């Protein structure tokens, strides 16, 4: 009680002397973008209070890409967005939108390696402070069984970690992750979770609250508005320090 009274007295004396109380830290805000946002004005994005951004580096193949094949493969806006976002003071990370496929052990492994190599080629190497590389895993899954899908994810994250030197983040949602059998294997291996759950006060977290670790990044809406970007954009927030999900 005596210590608490002293703290209060010192605070009152500071206010009387004209000292302003310390401001609470502003929550860090983020976005994730791809070629579909077009050319982004990154300095305006930074001026609008965005602290971090995941930028699509590559995109796999799958049923939706058959409709628009030019939207598969390398993301033509990645290098531009990565460079300009860093120049604007935004912490940047690369992600790969998976379209898992194959079927059977060898074909599934081959498909995962093909998508991982494309991502690695686009990213090249990580710089200090970059966000960890991320795997965007959501439906469709090309008819893979639970076991095959787990194998696909394991092959992708292991190859990316081997080549880029950092353990990838996994982006998913409860429905998509259930296709793996709601496995806790990747949570236990230390892969941070980037969870998608829109329009709710608290996200639903797969794999037993990610095996007790909880989410690190939450994509909480797909209809955000940010200066410098035409149209809607995904908005994210973090539960951990950005340094905890960044390359060292």
Topology, element by element:
Blueprint: H1 2-16, E1 29-33, H2 42-47, E2 52-59, H3 63-67, E3 73-74, H4 78-87, E4 91-97, H5 105-123, E5 134-136, H6 146-164, E6 169-172, H7 174-178, H8 185-188, E7 193-196, H9 206-211, E8 217-224, E9 233-238
Helix pairs in contact: 5-6
Structure, described:
This protein has nine helices and nine strands. The chain has 248 residues and is α/β, with parallel strands linked by helices. The protein has one domain: Glycosidases (TIM Barrel), CATH 3.20.20.80. An eight-stranded mixed β-barrel has the order 1-2-4-5-6-7-8-9. A hairpin with an 8-residue loop joins β8 and β9. The longest helix has 19 residues. It is globular.
Structural class by sheet pairing and helices: alpha/beta
Number of helices: 9
> Which range best describes the helical content: under 10%, 10-25%, 25-40%, 40-55%, 55-70% or over 70%?
25-40%
Mean pLDDT, to the nearest integer, reads 90
Distance between the termini: 43 Å
Low-confidence stretches: 1-24
Main sheet overview: 8 strands, mixed, barrel
**CATH topology group:** TIM Barrel
CATH homology-level superfamily: Glycosidases
Count of strand segments: 9
* Spatial ordering of strands, largest sheet: 1-2-4-5-6-7-8-9
> What's the number of structural domains?
1
What's the level 1 CATH class? Answer: Alpha Beta
Order of helices and strands: HEHEHEHEHEHEHHEHEE
Question: What proportion strand?
Answer: 15-25%
What's the shape? globular
Rounded radius of gyration (Å)? 21 Å
CATH architecture group name:
Alpha-Beta Barrel
């Amino acid at each position: 009680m005596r210590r608490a009274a002293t703290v209060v007295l010192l605070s009152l004396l500071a206010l009387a002397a004209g000292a302003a109380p310390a401001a609470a830290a502003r929550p860090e805000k983020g976005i994730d973008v791809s070629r579909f946002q077009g050319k982004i004005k990154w300095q305006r994005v930074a001026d609008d209070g965005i602290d971090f951004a995941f930028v699509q580096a590559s995109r796999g193949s799958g049923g939706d890409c058959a409709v628009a094949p030019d939207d598969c493969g390398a993301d033509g806006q990645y290098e531009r967005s990565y460079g300009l976002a860093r120049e604007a003071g935004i912490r940047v990370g690369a992600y790969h939108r998976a379209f898992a496929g194959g079927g059977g052990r060898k074909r599934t492994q081959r498909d995962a390696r093909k998508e991982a190599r494309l991502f690695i080629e686009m990213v090249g190497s990580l710089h200090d402070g970059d966000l960890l590389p991320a795997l965007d895993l959501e439906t469709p899954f090309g008819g893979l069984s639970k076991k095959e899908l787990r194998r696909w994810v394991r092959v992708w994250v292991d190859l990316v970690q081997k080549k880029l030197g950092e353990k990838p983040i996994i982006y998913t949602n409860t429905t998509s992750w259930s296709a793996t059998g709601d496995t806790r294997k990747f949570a236990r291996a230390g892969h941070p979770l980037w969870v998608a759950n829109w329009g709710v006060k608290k996200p639903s977290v797969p794999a037993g609250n990610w095996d007790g670790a909880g989410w690190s990044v939450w994509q909480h809406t797909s209809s955000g508005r940010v200066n410098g970007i035409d149209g809607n954009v995904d908005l994210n927030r973090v539960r951990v320090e950005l340094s905890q999900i960044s390359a060292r």
